[in-house]
Amino acid sequence: MSKAKVAVLMGGRTPEHEISLITGREVVNNLNKDKYKVFPIVISRTGDKWKLVPPNKLLKSPTPLTIKGTSKEFIPARIKQIQNVKQLFKKFDVVFIAMHGPYGEDGTIQGMLEIMGVPYTGSGVLASALGMDKLMFRKIMEKESVPVPRYSVVRKDDLQKALHSIANNPPYFIKPHNQGSSVGISIVRTKKQLAKAFKLAFKYSDVALVDEYIEGREVTCGILGNEKPKVLPLVEIIPKKGKFFDYNSKYMENGAEEIIPAKISTKLTREIQKMAINVHKILGCRDFSRVDFILKGNKPVVLEINTIPGLTPMSLFPKAAKAAGISYHQLLYEIIKYALQ
Q1: pTM above 0.85?
Q2: What are the residue ranges spanned by the domains of the chain?
Q3: Residues 183-198: pLDDT tens digits?
Q4: Could you tell me which CATH number the domain at 4-120 has?
Q5: Strands across the sheet with 172-176, in order?
């Protein structure tokens, strides 16, 4: 029986470039070599260079976090650039998208693969775009009566006017509307912190959300499947590196404590899992996703959905799968199986 040809797509024009590389390497390392022939493809920071990298070279490279904050590329210049992406991709049976953030998780790569007629993992164009855009996601959730934090929208051109209306009501979260991995997010507790927080958010987007500050337990629910998706055990997150589950808490060693399954009642667990599947279905997600919640008292509030959950060694989705008895090898097999449906 011939092996399925799987391209693993990683990197790209995103603030989550390094995290995508870590996810991609982990996927390449754990795909069953008896079932799949693996082709890692690394996209440059600028998005204009695509390189087909031998798996052994990818896996022997140093951790991608060593190039964070620099303009360095992870893959050496001596590895040739792909000249005809469309022709190459038609040779693959499926593309495993290991990309996070803009230009990878937001429907852009998905649209390209749709045009080429190549199967790929994760949600389609519309669900991906809606999941990445926090403002549109919130509007849909409100329309469907799914609880979300109270929020207001501040556009870059209206900042000065907005500052007067929100300055007297801290604390709150300020975040760009189109990023993942807590990129660009700040907690604002005083008026003096406002300008700095908006400057950071507007570095990534011209639209920022100002969320009510909810002090409560954070939990997340992974979902696997299509027509009849199944839930994974809930994960409770206790940040250690920061005051909330920020970038360092997510990706630095010992950045957070994860409790699996979350130490909450069976009734509340079922309520959250039911809400997570509902959110997954409302957006039309497929294959896998992860919905993040915060508990306001004993009431679950939906923060966001991740249509391509991280699959790094530090990530919550594979840890929840492991708690459900699903090994990393099996998890990747399941995701690809759903993609090929």
Answers
A1: yes
A2: 4-120, 132-147+215-340, 151-212
A3: 888 888 887 888 888 8
A4: 3.40.50.20
A5: 151-155, 207-212, 172-176, 186-188
